[in-house]
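Two entries, shown back to back:
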Amino acid sequence: MIRANDPSLKSWVTVSADSEFPIQNLPFGIVQLPGKPPRVASAIGDFVIDLYRLWELGLLTGLDLNRECLENRCLNDFINRGKSTTRAVRDRLSELLDAEVTRWNSREWRDQFLHPKTEVDLLLPVKVTDYTDFYSSIEHATNVGTMFRGPENALMPNWRHLPVGYHGRASSIVVSGTPIRRPYGQQKPAEPGGSPAYGPSRLMDFELEMAFIVGRSTQMGDRVRVDEAEDYIFGLALFNDWSARDIQAWEYVPLGPFLGKNFGSTLSPWIVSLDALEPFRVVGPEQDPAVLPYLQSNGAKNYDLHLEVAIAPEGGEAFTVCRSNFKYMYWNMCQQLAHQTVNGCNITVGDLYASGTISGPTPDAYGSMLEISWRGSRPIRLPDGSERKFIADGDTVILRGYGERDGIRIGFGDAVGKILPAHEQG
């Protein structure tokens, strides 16, 4: 077992019982301290751990690390060192922070590499080299298909045979806390044969998703097999794939999502390693009919991660509108990566692959406002008395997620975005 995963470990750092960042997590991200360049960091409790400073102090000796890797604006170089290195770093951190080892708990040492989260800026953790968004929740796909095509044709003929996906825009993926501007675009004509409307989207939506980050590159022509896919996956984060439903509805035939999606997506600030998520593995849903051999997946490849979404109106309290779980995914990450590469498509360290909206089997587990309000026909009421069919200007959407077992909670940090009004156009 990886030392850092030992459930009996305790840290000399004070960590509350409900913290998402116990010593068994130790995720990776990029932070900026006042007056300092960005650097690689980890997290424990309410503190960030400055890995660059630990390296300067000689506490990371013997590991495959250097200044350029750790004093960096993204994790890509660090991830590219391979899982042997990132595992060794987590294990070294667990040794330094172990409650049984008090040497580093003096003010002289701890203040050099441990900083309150409130005193640092959390930056986008990776330089996203490419971005693919999947459509892998059967509950979500069935709900959307039922709305637009009726229950008899809810799933397209290909859906149960391959993980449907599209290539999105990497440049507009932003870290949690970055506001999102309501986009302009064309919308469907009000009458058949009429001209399309143009203006700010009226149907802004969130999409509750998880994302995995690629940690190993391939060459063009290479394929990643299902049974080796986890060797290429570094870790997971929360992901909100914001959607302008009215723009999307007009443009998506015949080539799929475009301007209705690429104006902004929100990523949580910490990448949690697959190693840290090992205790939450579960077997996914049975796939019927049987999939083609290159997609056949054995064992526990899904993860029992509790997910929720809250909406906070301007000046108001947050109200939870969705509780779902990553374990519901019909197509797992290994199948997604195998399908992405089966044609020889090369992948790169820093690639981001999003799950698609994660909906559960009941209405309280639907992962988008499109489903929650059922295309606007069932508005929800917030605590301030206002109603929502979709997301209003000034609303802040908060995604949360964690796994919990034996009293240990492993989480990602919130993925938060506030919708700003559209820029006025001439």
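entry 2 starts here
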Amino acid sequence: MPTTAPAFADATASDSALRRFLFGLPGVDAVGLEARAAALGTRSIKTTAKAYAIDLAISMIDLTTLEGADTPGKVRALAAKAVNPDPTDRTTPRTAAVCVYPDMAATAAAAVAGSGVKVASVATAFPAGRAALDVKLADVRDAVAAGADEIDMVIDRGAFLSGRFLKVYEEIVAVKAECGEARLKVIFETGELSTYDNIRRASWIGMLAGADFIKTSTGKVATNATPANTLLMLEAVRDFRAATGVQIGVKPAGGIRTTKDAVKFLVLVNETAGEDWLDPHWFRFGASSLLNDLLMQRQKLSTGRYSGPDYVTVD
């Protein structure tokens, strides 16, 4: 059933109503948005604050493998790393989740059982989303039945870009209903939406439809998470909570590889949405290689020297 916040119930009453609402949103000042994202990216943090930021970033990672060559052994190894990222230092936080394809969800769930690490599964014909709705919903049911705690769905970008906004909204509502207790992350593939105005509109569609998170990207196209598109989505969740009282998470994914990158995104979160989002329940990094750099930087702060990549596992 529809999950639109009461304050915006009329916005999704029809295709024309939703179109009017979306095109009534303030236009995005692209120059201003990119300038603010760049300015916030110049902030630097040192010593104790850096140690805190590194541990927080580790705890926010959805450690991800989404390859055709994934095997049960690879998924179990990734899950072991998520649970215990640095075997030489048991104070290292575990990651938020492991993110896998639906057919690997059961393997991942067994591997992280009892650890507190969540299992996130992509679904709805990821990454293209080119399938009939009943196929997409079956994909979600299979993942949830296999033990997924979180579902990362892709929107129908073809429908969105051709102006069929209500279709996109209704598919998200239907997927949310199939999730049961699992949290839903809605992926926009921002690199395919062409404009910041489209990213803002997609963010509002996702939020109105009941997303628990809005997510930038699949990691499968040339342009993935950027400071500017993530800033725009953080503004959207901030404004949505101000209007409805409902808090929604944000997940940038793809292309975030270094500690320096991660710290920039954490600054964006703090300065845009606020401290309430500085928590793994409300902010995630979709990443694979990021964890290794965070571990090396953590070891550097602890020992005073870089241990080098040979001292962290290769995913």
